[in-house]
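Checked the freezer inventory, then went back to the computational side. Two predictions to log before the end of the day. The first one is the construct we discussed on Monday; recording sequence and C-alpha cells without edits.
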Amino acid sequence: GGSNGAPAPPPPPPPPGMKAAAGSNETSQQGGVPKISKSWEVIQQFQALNRRAAASGGHAGRKGNGEEDASKNGKPQAAIADAVKQELEMKSSYMRQVVADREKYAEMILDLARQISKFAPKNMEQLDVFVAEVERRLGKLSDERMVLKAENFASVWPERKLDVMREAIAKKNEFETLLNSMDVTSERWGARSNVRDELVHVMEKFQQVKPQVDTHVREKDDLQRKFAHDKIPFDWNLLKRIQHGTVGLANYAMSMVLSAYHRLQDEANSNEVQHMRALMEEALRFAFKCHQFAGGFDQETTSLFVALNSALHPQESSTPAES
C-alpha cells in the first residue's frame, strides 16, 4: 500500500536482541519464559496519549477488509455416475487390502497396543519420539481406522490414550508454529518495502496470533485435566512464551519507526516528518496492546516505549512518572 506524499524510507534491520525480546534467549529460570512485568510508566504514558487524542478530536483507526469470491460448479450427471461406478469397483479391492493388513500386521499392532498402554513419558521430548515411531508403524496400514476395527484389535487397542498423545503433540507443534511466526529475523517473515507497510504487517501478525492464543487459554484447563488423566506431560510455558513473544513485535515496531524518524529529522520535508509522527503514534498504540496482552514489557521494550513517546511529545520527556 502507498502513503500520502513521498514513500517512507525502508525499515532498518531488526534491532540487536530482537530474538531475545521474542522469547528465545534472555529468559528467566522458569521454563524459558522471558522476564517481563507491568510497566506503570508505559500505562501512564499511554493514558496521556489517549487524553491528547481525545482533546484533538480522536484517533482514526484503519481497517482492511478482504473479500472472497466463492463459486460453485455443479458436476455433470455423467461424471457423478462414473464416480459412483468407480467407487463400487474400488470397494472390493479396498476391503481385500484391509483384511490383508489385519493379517500381515497383527503382531505389530498387538505389540503397539501393549507399548502404548504402558508408556509413561517423563517429558515432551520422550512423548514426541514415541508418537513419531507409532505414526511410522501405523503408516504402513492401508486404512488405520478400518484395520483396527477388527475384533481382536479393538478389544485391546488403547484408542483414547493414543488420541490424547496425538493431541498433545499437535498442540505443541501448533504452539511452536505460532511462536516462530513472530520471529522477524527469519526468512519466512517477509519484510515489507517501507516503514508504513511493515508496521501494518507487524500489527496484522499480532491480530492473527492473539485470537488463537485466547482460544488456547480458554481450552487450557480442560486439556490439562485430559492430559493428566493419561499422565501425558505438556509444557504449558509454550503458551506463555507466545504471549511474551508479542513483546518482540512491539520492540521491533517501535525500533523501526523511531529509527526512521531520526533519519528524517535532518530533512526539510515536513509532510514526510508529519506522516512519520502519525506512524509513531500508531506504533505506541500497538505496543500498548502487546503490553496488555503479554502482561508487561521487559526493561528494553519499556525504555523504547518511553523513548518513542518522548520523541513524539518532547515537552513531556522531563516530566517524572506519577507514583
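The second is the one RB wanted added to the comparison set:
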Amino acid sequence: MLIYSYLVKPSPNSQAPKLREAIKSLKLIQYCEIDLKYYDYIKENDGIKYLCKKDKERAPLLQIINKNIVRLSTEELDFDIRSLPIQVENECIYEYNNRNPGNFGGTDDRSLGFCTTLNTRINVLLRENNFNSIFNFNGEKCTVDVFKMLEDFLCQNDKKFFYMNLSDLPFSFDIREVVANSFGKKMLSFARQGKFKTHPIVMVIDEAHQFLNKTVSSDYESFKLEAFDLIAKEGRKYGLFLCITTQRPRDIPSGTLSQFGTFIVHRLINQKDKEIIHDVLPSSNKDIIYYLPELGQGEIILSSTDIKETILLKVTEPKISPDSNTPEFKRYDEFEEENQEHLQVEDIEHIF
C-alpha cells in the first residue's frame, strides 16, 4: 500500500481511504473470484475486472471479506493495477441504501468528485514508461518477474549467489530507493515465513547509504523506506543476515549500525564519519578512530565482537585491478613545450 500511496499521492482524508478500499477489493478478486461472481459482484469492461458494490447486498460481501481478512491485511499487492482507476470510482458509494439498509447505497457524487484528481494521477502512472518497465503495469508476459526468480533461487540448493544490479535505474521519482525497499520487504517477508531458518541468507548491500535511512515524500505526507533497517534489527532471528558497504557512515542510522557485530573500516577523514564509528564500536575498541586517517591504500582495521582486540590488516591486491584511479590532467598536444610559457591571454580564451 505504501508504494502506491507514494506513487499516486492521495490526499489523506478523502482519497487515501478510497484508494485503500479499492486495493482491498482488487485483492479480493484475486483470492475469491468464484465466490464474488456467484453473488454478481464482479463486472468486466474491456478485459478489466472490478468489484461493483453499488446497490448490491452487503452481507455476502462482508462475509467473504471476513474469511480473507488476514490475506487482505498483508502488504502483498497482487492485483491488476489497470483496474485501479475504475475500482476507485466504484468505491465512491454510500455505505447503506436508504430504502434497503441491507444493501450498499448508490453513487456518492461528492466522493467521486474528490477522487477525480487521484484517478488522473493513477492513469498518468500507468502510462509512465519508467515505472511500467519496472513494475510491469501492463501485464506483459515477456517481462521477467524478479520476485519469481528470487523464489526459484531460494528453492535451488546448488545456487549460491543472487545478484541484482540497480545501476541502470533512473534517479527520478526515487525509483531506485522504492525498488530496493520493495526487494528488502520481500526478503523480510520470506524470513518471517521461516524460509531461512534451515538455510540462512546473507544479504549484501553496496553503497548502502543510497538505500538506508531514506524517506520519500508526497504533497501530504512522508513515507519512510525502512525495510533494510528492519532487517538489521530483527533479521538475525529469522536467518536473514545483513552486510553493508558504504563510504558515508554518517548517512547510516546509528541504531542500524549498532546492530552489526563486525566492522571492516578503511581510511576515514570526515569527523562525523569517525564519530559514528566511535559510537557504534565496543568500548574496548573505540581508540581505533585515531588511526583511521593514517591508514594507507589497502589497509583496514577489523573490529568484531568475536575478537578481543582490533586487528590492522593489509588486503591482498586483487588479480584483476579495478580502474579506480583519478584521471590526470594532460597538457594540450597542440602546444609545443617551448611555447607553453609564451601563451597569451587570447590563446587561453581560444582554448576554452
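For RB: The radius of gyration is 28 Å. The mean pLDDT is 84. Let me know if you want it refolded.
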